[in-house]
Amino acid sequence: MLTVHKANKLKGKCVVPGDKSISHRAVMLSGISKGTTKIGGFLKGEDCLATLRCFQQMGVKVREEKNQLFITGKGLHGLEEPEDVLDAGNSGTTMRLMAGILSGQDFYSVITGDASLRKRPMKRIAFPLRKMGAGIDGRKMGTQAPLTIRGGGLKGIEYQLPVASAQIKSAVLLAGLFADGVTSVIEPRVSRDHTERMLQSFGVTVRQDGLKCTVKSEELQATHIEVPGDISSAAFILVAAACIKGSDVTLENIGINPTRAGIIDALCQMGAEIGIKNKREIGGEPIADVRVKGSDLKAVEIGEEQIPSLIDEIPVLAIAAVCAKGTTRITGAAELRVKETDRISAMEEELKKIGVEITALEDGMMIDGPQIITGGSTDSHGDHRIAMAMAVAGLLSEEPITIDNHHCMAVSFPGFIETIENLREG
Ligand SMILES: O=C(O)C1=C[C@@H](OP(=O)(O)O)[C@@H](O)[C@H](O)C1
Ligand SMILES: C=C(OP(=O)(O)O)C(=O)O
């Protein structure tokens, strides 16, 4: 159990660990490329370590030197049939993106995950991958993990995504690297585009035409990847500092890819004082230093269009809404119900325990602010984002907040508590 006490101010500079989405993709793409890829800033969080172990089980060699990973790929057709079940742990990204790659392999594989992941919907990737020719089965009529995959013999398809999901888009595009003909995905709204950007760094031609993205089979060539700081991890610090008057924090080297930076836009709409400095691009991804100062916040309306760019940040955005004047309304976010936990219900349950009123909607939530956070005992539901959102609430709370099952923070942000404590002034 973790106890978090109120903070007077947060001050200083910090870095956050590498981007989780980019770290997963760096392992996967280097694993199926030719040559050795050097990866700096790789996130050693539980999710990305699960991806790394899965690729090692398929014969991919990984070496670490001076905090950099060197991954020697097996080419498009060199992965080895894993002798045992692949374990994606808590990570939806690992399971769904890897299913795309496994669908292209001329072998049989089984992929499972923890109790949370085994409940998450997999039909969304199994359906298009079967259309391409993969033999995929699983529990609950082939819709839940463990999944079995007999890959090979794929043909390209054009697929209209039913939801704006980078995981479904990426699974189909990655399978497309092994398919005969061209493979296209059409998204209903823009979702994070790290796969498309990184494929190009590995020398693959990616055609983007509005919301339609097309690839065809092409060998990947090893490259050098620098993983930026994860904006989804930075979000916890951004919200905490924005809510505490007198705070002034600079987060260095944060990825500000526009398909991911919705939390910055949302906080600016709420009147937060945020400055973006030292903008640059590394390996096709925009990064910058982000400075945030504490100020009075006002409520915001977040709808369907903005959701994909801040989907993982909604639990902590809810904490900002508690401090903001007026009614914050978040809608179009039904996807929150199928994350590591049902994040709408989990936030409703946990906020009530610390004296905060919230109205849960089928596809979002409404919060009237400002409200006083009284403090109390909470539980993470085994979900890293809920655990860290509750820790941010603790920094703002009259009385301390305890968080049960807080170790899941290491899924995406190892060292979260130390990072916060280093910024605490009083
Ligand atoms: O592609 C990715 O790396 C991710 C995509 C998002 O999921 P969906 O594709 O299900 O929206 C996000 O919530 C997840 O944390 C990471
Ligand atoms: C939803 C998340 O990740 P994943 O889908 O990879 O489990 C997340 O990190 O918030």
Task: Write structural notes for this entry.
With about 425 residues, this protein is an alpha/beta fold. It folds into two domains: about 1-20 and about 230-425, Alpha-beta prism (UDP-n-acetylglucosamine1-carboxyvinyl-transferase, Chain); about 20-225, Alpha-beta prism (UDP-n-acetylglucosamine1-carboxyvinyl-transferase, Chain), CATH 3.65.10.10. About 30% of the residues lie in helices and about 30% in strands. It has 13 helices and 26 strands. The chain has helices at about 20-30, 45-55, 90-105, 125-130, 140, 165-175, 195-200, 230-245, 260-270, 315-325, 345-355, 385-395, 415-425, and strands spanning about 1-5, 10-15, 35, 35-40, 60-65, 70, 85, 110, 135-140, 145-150, 160, 180-185, 205-210, 210-215, 220, 225, 250-255, 275-280, 285-295, 300, 325-330, 360, 365-370, 375-380, 400-405, 425. Strands 18-19-17-2-26 form a five-stranded mixed sheet. It is globular, with a radius of gyration of 21 Å. It starts with a strand and ends with a strand. About 55% of the residues are buried. The model has no long low-confidence stretch (mean pLDDT about 100). Bound molecules: shikimate-3-phosphate and phosphoenolpyruvate (PEP). The site of phosphoenolpyruvate has 10 residues, from α3.
